Amino acid sequence: MKKLLILGAGTAGTMMLNKLDKKLDKKEWEITIIDKDDTHYYQPGFLFIPFGIYKPKDVVKSRKEFFPAGTHFIIDEVDKINGDDNKVILKSGEVLTYDVLIVATGTTPVPSETEGLMGPLWYKDIFDFYTFEGASLLAKKLENWKGGKLVINLAETTIKCPVAPLEFAFLADAYFTEKGIRDKVEINYVTPLSGAFTKPIATKMLSQLMEKKNIHVVPDFYLEHVDNDLKKIVSYDGMEVEFDLLVSIPTNMGADMVANSNMSDEDDLNFIPTNKETLQHKQHENIFVIGDATNLPTSKAGSVTHFEGEILIENILSFINGKPLEAKFDGHANCFIETGFGKAALIDFNYTTEPLPGQFPIPVLGPMGLLKETRINHMGKLAFKWIYWHMLLTGKSLPVSTNMSMTGKKAPKKEENKEKEEPQQEEVLL
């Protein structure tokens, strides 16, 4: 019996488990999936918890609920991978062998990477919302907060769901407006980027929206430490921003087992060097990497994981059958951006094409608008929760093309966007 191991039972791991269960001969292959517990979080829902749109119970289910019948599930933590010997060592000491390995161990906020972030004010006046605990505690804080200086700060640029901090700012504007205290809240969006987003067309649209909502953007701010005594964040070049309430997006890192396995990329953030088209590990041909665990120059988002999954299932089947890996991932990402008051924007892009205006997925008809605030985009964002539980996790195909399409997009003329003439192959598009 040949063995296929999946490390991580989050979005990517569960999705691949369901896809492979349908494709592999069970008389020939044994599939095992490993994770530290049986709790699956709908992470896109963390954004809504602080504002009371979702309750904490709305985003939690058992992992097993989404596994095919008869799945071999091990609850344990992975200590390291020995890629030369095709072995995985668990924290319990158990050693597992494999013929094919899929790494889907994701990324996690690590606030301890920044001096002072987890100081005396942590979970008193400093919160995150990328974790279940942080989002739940922040909801309680906002219920009774009377106003002041709200600072939303990105510690690094490589984070999961890169549009979520923007969404938090927009939803905060709506939340405090509806509570009748918006005039008592100063919202500052402090980012290491040179603007609200990474690329010029999206940045222009989002910056105008920030200005319209009286959200002040502080660009080029590289967080060095947090001063708990004076309640301010300080950058490496000495810039300071005061806060009464700090909502932090801490440094994101891959799993510790990546470092233990000597598989981390050159930035030492525990992301795994991965072939950006085939999703194959760069040193071990029988190891494949998917989702936030990769070091690919695209967004760490659920939509990316879905598109990668469509490519990866083809390539794993080709690898097993001794055929060339011909399916190519183009970096496709598709993200809704909640903008508050029942509206949202939508962006669609890949490794080489930045978010552009237009209609999606059908030209002229849409019904969704790219880089445009609409109510139907908002409905699409809310509908994604059902799609996530019932289609994405269970490995079903979605009615969106795997590779990005230019259909319906309005590409700028060269003289309108000279930056597009520059090479973008290895640039990270959030």
From TrEMBL:
Its EC number is 1.-.-.-. SUPFAM superfamilies: FAD/NAD(P)-binding domain. Keywords: Oxidoreductase. GO terms for molecular function: oxidoreductase activity. It is an enzyme of class 1 (oxidoreductase). InterPro entries: FAD/NAD-bd_sf (IPR036188), FAD/NAD-binding_dom (IPR023753), SQRD (IPR052541). Residues 3-297 form the FAD/NAD(P)-binding domain. Residues 403-430 are annotated as: Disordered. Transmembrane segments: none annotated. It holds the Pfam family Pyr_redox_2. Residues 413-423 have a biased composition (Basic and acidic residues). This is FAD/NAD(P)-binding oxidoreductase. It comes from Marivirga salinarum. The lineage of its organism: Bacteria, Pseudomonadati, Bacteroidota, Cytophagia, Cytophagales.
